[in-house]
Amino acid sequence: MPLPYEQLAAIRLGFGLSPRGQLPSDPAQVARLVAESGPEPNGITLDKLREWQSEGKALAQKARNGTKEQNKASRMHKQRMRALFQAAVLRRFARAVDDPTGFGERLVWFWADHFTVTGGSIYYNLMSDAIVQDAIRPHLAGKFADMMFAAETHPAMLRYLDQTRSVGPNSVIAKQKPDKALGLNENLAREMIELHSMGVGADYTQKDVEELAELLTGLTYNPRQPTVFRARRAEPGAETVLGETYGGKGKASMGDIRAVIANLATQEATARHIARKMAVHFVADDPPQGLVDRLAGVFLDTGGDLGAMNLALAEAPELEENLRSKMRQPFEFLVASMRGLGMTGQQIDALRPAALHRHLLNPMAIMGQPWAAPDGPDGWPERAEDWASPQGIAMRINWAMTSPPELLGQLPDARDLLRDALGDTASEAVAWAVPRAESNPEGVALVLASADFNRR
Amino acid sequence: MLTRRLFLKSTALIGCSAAASPLMSTASFASAPGENRLVVIILRGAMDGIDAFQPYGDKNLRALRQTLSLGPDHGATDLDGFFALHPGLSELLPLWQAGQLAFAPAVSTPYRDKRSHFDGQNMLEAGTGTDMDLADQQDGWLNRLLQVMPGQTSETAYSVGIEKMLILQGKAQAKSWTPEASMTLGPQAERLLMKIYHDDPLFRDASAQALEIVAGLKNAPAPAKPEDEHIALARFAADRLNGETRIASFSLAGWDTHSGQSGSLNRSLGRLAQSILALKADLGKNWDTTTVMAMTEFGRTARENGSAGTDHGTGGAMLVTGGAVRGGRVLGDWPGLAEGDLYDGRDLMPQRDIRAYAAWAMHAKFGIDKAVLEGSVFPDLQMGSDPRMLA
User: Fold this and answer.
1) Residue A419: inside a domain
2) Residue A335 and residue A447 in one domain
3) C-alpha B150: how far from chain center
4) What is the pLDDT of residue B20?
5) How many angstroms separate the CA of residue B333 from the nearest CA in chain A?
6) Distance between CA atoms of residues A75 and A187, nearest Å
7) Are A401 and B199 inside 8 Å of each other by CB?
8) Residue in chain A nearest B210 by alpha carbon
């Protein structure tokens, strides 16, 4: 018997089943609902960040050798920043829990990972959320080129991939300060091609990377300046990337950077790279070639229209054929658990900082996914083996045992949870084991710790 | 007889991806590499060495610090007439008296001038010089030690705690575990779960290994309160070191004392002291063959800043303790605190590369050749003369 589509879509494209309300039941509706994952109305954006950062810097300067009050003002500011970030992280969980199918919020996670940045300090943490608001959410069903431009030129990315350290060797600034040995940093240029667009095996040369790096000079970030482009840092002259020549006519400008990204974003290699990556993330670690080819075709035919990609994915018969091929990443596991338990976004937003760390961020880190801290710009691993370390699995079991009672107060009946969280997909072993648990909390833990639940 | 324990041990060696490997791996029967044990504690955030081991005998100290590092008149304990131990470390005084505690007051990695925590810690754990891009430093020096250590198994080294330890990452297998993952399953739940996982090799193998680790724990409970995490880390490390493990590493945070240092450093030093004492207590007689090195990414400014704290510096202190240590003494030279003695006019001048001490410890305790230490464990390090740190 085929699995009802609403269950299939929620498990494979979203964050799993939920006892709350009706799940969307046809692919067009599932794809259409992605629009609901737009920017958070009160979210952290670059504009706000600039203000906070300038304010923080001024307060910190005053606090150095300052009075007790000035010291306190600076500390309070930092505290406020931390609270804002914690609220933003809770929103990420809450929106995923409330999302009807969850496809939109899964796409947010997917694209934020594709354009990985890391957090770290207070402001880097805030930036890592701002890039999601500013660059990812607005373009989930838009053109890939627009998302790519927004992401590559976002200060979070400029900082993470060292673009803020890259200066044209013949730029005005470099000539003014010869003692500083200012020069190119190719990091962003390389990852733009290798990771973000064409893929590492594609047909480009080291020369393309170097020329792109020169073209990108000028991009930098200073919280007190309203734009991220400073012509004085830019390398003069024309640059040729993938056979197209940019700049050189007049002063270097942001327009050239937009143009080169538009070209990179619509290459055939980019279509194949993005198609494969989506298929790997949503369908299988080793995805069916037919699906990859189809998605690549859609990307090329539509000029990288992500709305069309979302629909193609939602309609794919390979979703059912490869059910449970993927392991839920720790974030997905936590969201899916809270959905299955019937929690609401409102309940999650209301969690205190201590609970955020105890029930969400620390467990996630122990499961192998510290918040905003993947190992490198290639983001989180996709293979099931990468998430199935003894410590990772132990922590999932541990979480299933200890966190639901503390988060909920009143646990659902484990037999109801079995139906609510696994629908028609529960294996015989799970259906057999859950009613045999010694206690209801252990039954709940068995459902959430099961391989059925931890796969999608 | 193939006991469950042995079976699990051999599957642990091959990891979860190699489902088709034979049940028994000969490596699991290789002899453990001797009795010597090494624990490396990374102090994340840059410990103020000048405050931990206060050079009150240096006549320039008072001009630099008004509210910090006030010496024996203000609660610190005199050690040798020149240095005094911060009150936060006073619990370690018996170790000093027993000759099992030493410190190097002015050491550093080759990292200079940028003073970023993340980069500094990467360099400390990678153990490389300045010639390599920090972003490319993907493996740590303890892992490179494992790669050249005779008789090592997958149990030989453990990284303990939530924090990822670059120091143990790399090609050689090392285990990682955080006490917080230690499960509290009842026997019935465990049986049912094993049934559920039975047909999924990935879950079956990983959970079996996890259960084996937890079942093997004699004496290392998960932390009851978050503030006891440092003790849980130490106790878990000791538990493993009492078994086949010979190298363990974990990290303690809370050293970035830009303001109000006297309170926060006191707490962090107290936690360091408690974790060392927990190691000692749980290691029992194995303490005699143990060397503990506590290292930080860099030191802090010689001058106290305007908010009763200190800022990122260069030279800092390393603490060494254990039954294997020739302690009760200061390792290496003291650079002095006069204006002209400071690095960049602000920081303690490093007197020796911190890696040299680690290299000599590995040479003495694991019998690793100097050529290997200077060639592959710490590429391009000059070990210099033997600091005779260990007994």
Assistant:
1) yes
2) yes
3) 22
4) 32
5) 32
6) 34
7) no
8) A390
Interface test with B, best of A186, A397, A442 (most B CBs within 10 A): A397
Q: Cβ contacts (< 8 Å) between B207 and chain A: which residues? A: 390, 393-394, 397
Residue B358 domain-assigned? yes
Whether A280 maps to a domain, the answer reads no
Could you say which residues of chain B have pLDDT below 50?
Answer: 1-32
The residue to which tokens 């009851």 are assigned: B224
Query: For residue A50, is it within any domain?
Result: no
CATH number at residue B298: 3.40.720.10
Quote the CA–CA distance of B231 and B222 in Å, as a whole number.
10
Unique residue bearing structure tokens 């940028």: B114
- Tell me what pLDDT residue A174 has: 93
Look at residues A265, A280, A311 and tell me which one is the last residue of a structural domain: A265
Backbone φ and ψ of B59, nearest 5°:
-70, -15
Q: Please report how many Cα atoms fall inside a 13 Å half-sphere around the Cα of residue B134, on the Cβ side.
A: 16
Contact B37, B158 (CB under 8 A): no
Does residue B56 form part of some domain? Answer: yes
Q: Is residue B371 part of a domain?
A: yes
Nearest CA in chain A to B119: A120
Q: Is the dihedral of CA B323, B327, B332, B337 positive or negative?
A: positive
The verdict on A67 touching B (C-beta cutoff 8 Å) is no
DSSP state of B186: -
Q: Could you list the residue range(s) of the whole structural domain that residue A199 is in?
A: 158-265
> What is the per-residue pLDDT for B318?
98
Residue reference for tokens 């979703």:
A319
Asked if residue A356 and residue A241 are part of one domain, the reply reads no
Mean pLDDT estimate for chain A: 95
pLDDT of residue B180: 84
How many domains does chain B divide into? Answer: 1
Whether A319 contacts A283, CB under 8 Å: yes
- Cβ-Cβ contacts under 8 Å, A366 against chain B: 162, 178, 180-181
B114 contacts: CB under 8 Å, gap ≥ 6: B120
**Encoded tokens for B91:** 């619990």
Domain boundary among A221, A245, A265: A265
Of A358, A366, A445, the CB nearest to B162: A366
B209 contacts A64? CB cut-off 8 A: no
Closest alpha carbon within chain B to A429: B196
Instruction: Give the span between the Cα atoms of A247 and A250, in whole angstroms.
Output: 7
Identify whether A376 is part of a domain. Answer: yes
**Total tally of structural domains belonging to chain A:** 2
Are A63 and B306 a contacting pair at CB < 8 A? Answer: yes
Q: How far is CA A142 from CA A38, A171, A301, in A?
A: 11, 35, 14
- Residues A234-255: tens digit of each pLDDT: 999 999 999 999 987 777 789 9
Distance in angstroms (rounded) separating the CA atoms of residues A412 and A420? 10
Question: Would the CB atoms of A395 and B188 count as touching at under 8 Å?
Answer: no
User: In which residue ranges of chain A is pLDDT below 50?
Assistant: none
**Residue B184: what pLDDT?**
74
Token representation of residue A180: 């500083």
Question: Can you give the pLDDT at residue A24?
Answer: 92
Find the DSSP H helices in B131-258. Answer: 141-147, 187-197, 201-216, 229-241
**Cα-only R_g, chain B:** 22
Say if B24 falls within a structural domain: no
DSSP-derived secondary structure letter, A193? I
Count Cα atoms within 13 angstroms, Cβ side, for B171: 6
Q: CA B281: distance to chain centroid? A: 17
Instruction: Find which of A393, A401, A442 to mutate to test the B interface (most B CBs within 10 Å of its CB).
Output: A393
Q: Taking CB atoms and an 8 Å limit, are B306 and A120 in contact across chains?
A: no
